[in-house]
């Protein structure tokens, strides 16, 4: 019976890790190439307002994360697209406001809201069948959207102005990309949490970009890196009894640092 329980436990973690890796790898590649990691960080942190509000009103915090992340993506996209000069200010405002709303409502919630820590820092070991199903649905939506709209996303990622001149509604697809980021944040909340979500959305992708400049290759490498970091974090957390999310980000950051040093050493050697 114990062996059956352990197999079931790791089975769901295995699936959850795979789905999370695909989501973060695919979406993170566009974030890295377009260099909008600050925007993705703002969407992620703004969604904490939804967690606090959900706890206060007594419904599932994941719905709160989804609502706040979605509308934050829409508002940030519209405002930043209309006024690039104020983009940093808008992103920073949403970042701070979302966190403030979350803290405010969690403080007003009667009793001890200990579950808030799981949404801030995540814990993939607590992912069960329902959460895995949600991850699968988000992954299916993300992959389907990217496959169907790949060339449009590719165009706005590398040259937005050329996309506009070519007759493509660049703003629509830019907003679509931000919406994919908002759904990715929802997917990453359970595994690494809101605070560390931006790390998993960026570190594997920028590591992959050091190895290739082709977007398709970056996506594949980013998914592989994410998968290795997640599983490495799970196994290390098992042996050291430390939250998996910390090890996942440690591994991602360590690999990026090593690749960055090797990449710059190689460039310097070529220049010499």
Envelope shape: globular
Distance between the termini: 64 Å
What's the CATH architecture name?
Answer: Orthogonal Bundle
SS class: mainly alpha
Number of strands: 0
Please describe the structure with a list of short key phrases separated by commas or semicolons.
272 residues, mainly alpha, ABC transporter involved in vitamin B12 uptake, BtuC, 84% helix, globular
Please describe the topology of this protein:
Elements (H helix, E strand, L loop, with lengths): L1 H33 L2 H10 L1 H10 L3 H22 L4 H22 L7 H6 L7 H20 L1 H9 L1 H6 L4 H20 L3 H17 L5 H26 L3 H28 L1
Task: Please tell me about this protein's structure.
With 272 residues, the protein is an all-alpha fold. The chain has one domain: ABC transporter involved in vitamin B12 uptake, BtuC (Orthogonal Bundle). Helix content is 84%, strand content 0%. The chain has 13 helices and no strands. Helix 1 (2-34) runs parallel beside helix 7 (129-148) and helix 10 (170-189) packs across helix 11. The chain is globular and about 55 Å long. The N and C termini lie far apart (64 Å). The model has no long low-confidence stretch (mean pLDDT 84).
């Amino acid at each position: 019976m114990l062996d059956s329980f352990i197999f079931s436990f790791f089975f769901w973690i295995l699936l959850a890790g795979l789905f999370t890796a695909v989501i973060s790898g695919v979406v993170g590649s566009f974030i890295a190439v377009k260099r909008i990691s600050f925007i993705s960080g703002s969407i992620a942190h703004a969604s904490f307002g939804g967690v606090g509000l959900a706890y206060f009103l007594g419904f599932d915090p994941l719905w709160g994360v989804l609502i706040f992340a979605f509308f934050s993506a829409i508002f940030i996209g519209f405002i930043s697209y209309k006024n690039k000069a104020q983009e940093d200010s808008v992103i920073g405002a949403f970042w701070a406001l979302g966190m403030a709303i979350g803290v405010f409502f969690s403080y007003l919630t009667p009793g001890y809201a200990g579950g808030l820590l799981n949404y801030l820092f995540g814990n993939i070991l607590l992912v069960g069948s329902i959460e895995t199903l949600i991850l699968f649905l988000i992954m299916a939506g993300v992959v389907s959207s990217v496959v169907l709209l790949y060339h449009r996303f590719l165009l706005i990622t590398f040259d937005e102005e050329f996309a506009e001149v070519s007759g493509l509604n660049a703003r629509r697809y830019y907003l679509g990309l931000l919406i994919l980021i908002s759904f990715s944040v929802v997917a990453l909340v359970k595994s690494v949490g809101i605070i560390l979500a931006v790390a998993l959305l960026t570190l594997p992708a920028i590591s992959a970009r050091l190895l290739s400049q082709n977007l398709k290759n970056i996506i594949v490498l980013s998914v592989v890196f994410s998968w290795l970091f997640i599983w490495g974090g799970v196994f290390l957390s098992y042996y050291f009894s430390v939250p998996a999310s910390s090890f996942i980000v440690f591994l991602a950051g360590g690999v990026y640092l090593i690749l960055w040093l090797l990449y710059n050493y190689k460039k310097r050697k070529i220049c010499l």
